[in-house]
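Input set for joint prediction.
Command: fold jointly, output tokens.
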Amino acid sequence: MLDIKFIRENLELVEMAAAKKHIAVDLKRLIKLDDERREITQRLEEKRAEQNKVSEQIPSASAEEKQSLIASMQEVKTAVQADEEALRPVMEEWRTLMLQVPQIPDMTVPEGESDEDNEEVRTWGEQTTFDFEPKDHIELMTALKMVDFERGTKVHGFRGYYLLGDGARLTWAIWNYANQFFMEKGFTPMIPPTIVRKENFYGTGHLPNEAEDLYETQDGDSLTGTSEVSAMGYYRDEILDKAQLPTTFLAFSPCYRREAGSHGKDTKGLIRVHEFYKLEQVVLCEASHEESVRWHEQITANSEEFMQSLGIPYHVVVNCGGDLGQGQVKKYDIEAWVPKEGKYRETHSSSYFHDFQTRRFNIRYKDEDGTVRYAHSLNNTAIAAPRILVSLLENFQQADGSIAIPAPLVPFFGKDRIELPTR
RNA sequence: GGAGGGUUGGCUGAGUGGUCGAAAGCGCUUCACUGCUAACGAAGUAUGGGUUUAUAGCCCAUCAAGGGUUCGAAUCCCUUACCCUCCGCCA
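tokens >
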């Protein structure tokens, strides 16, 4: 959500932002509606002032005066009601349009339509080479009895899976390692709800435009596709002390995504599934662009450091305008090397929003001088599983079909190699 | 799932149709006082919007949220959310 005053004063900038993000929003219409809103509101407030003034006189007026005052106020009331009626449809459309207005992307965001146009900013590690024919994660995991896709689809349906044996154990090891790693960085661990009210999705910016991707309950709530939604909702409608900032959560939750519109993509394996688990870095910081940028680089670096500790080759891309979410100012994706596919696949997504989300959530803080400001918000994946298994297993596979476990995971996993179980 | 009772400012809590944006107390801020601290005393202490050079005034809104009744609603009615008590069910 942008401030309507800002939109009015920077209309060209907002138009450019929408164009860069390839988002269609009728800003002319919004301004026209806002003119109407202001005009009606002003009229309405004058009448209400009149009502309030006379209402103060009525109790002390004589019986005769009282009658005439009440009679005149009946007319004012009718006029007030007429204005209220007129305002209602204006506000409804005004709100709808306001929810469509995108956040202004940063100057450094490249032009482009889709993820095809994202630009590589750096790479880490060598693209893994093998002196044997490597297998993909599906073959590897199936052979090592780490996963069962057939029974997954039998029980869940399309994109269903079971993690089994070392597949489940390795996933737990990754969570536990990630927990330790990020807690050492000062993040507060959080296990948030995943069945949440719709307003939280409006808050993060997932609604109104991503409704198709949400699972709904029969009570009108939705399942979160990322713990960002419930972690951000935590401080909704609150005014924090500045001393509470920055607030950094490491939120762990299952994530539910309908993947509507991507039925043909990644139909096999663990890249794209309807439910998975993710540890997410969520940050609220003070309202300064510099702070936002500093934290953005920091939470990106955190995840890179984590990937480096695992030894997984990756690169970082800066997302182009067309691949940015409505509320995002700038976004980096970390993409891990997947040898069998011969390309990098997204494992992390790191973005900042300025006050786009906190305006919608009404999350503010009190500055030293008493000024109340909207905080800034950011988030980045810490680690998503089982997706991370794809690159992890494919990169560390051995000629004999076993998997070498990266050293930092060994204490959590309990052994340094995955081999075919004897039973 | 059934029955009943609640939701008021940072907190406790008064207020059942009219000078109520809201008593009182606590907390907090400032001032005064005191050798220092405490106590006592004085003043102040919400958020959003409009107007404005203005963090001065003035105006509008907000007593869980939304709608309604009324000239007028914290107060009456309806709906929703949440909290509490009892019964039922339950990991």
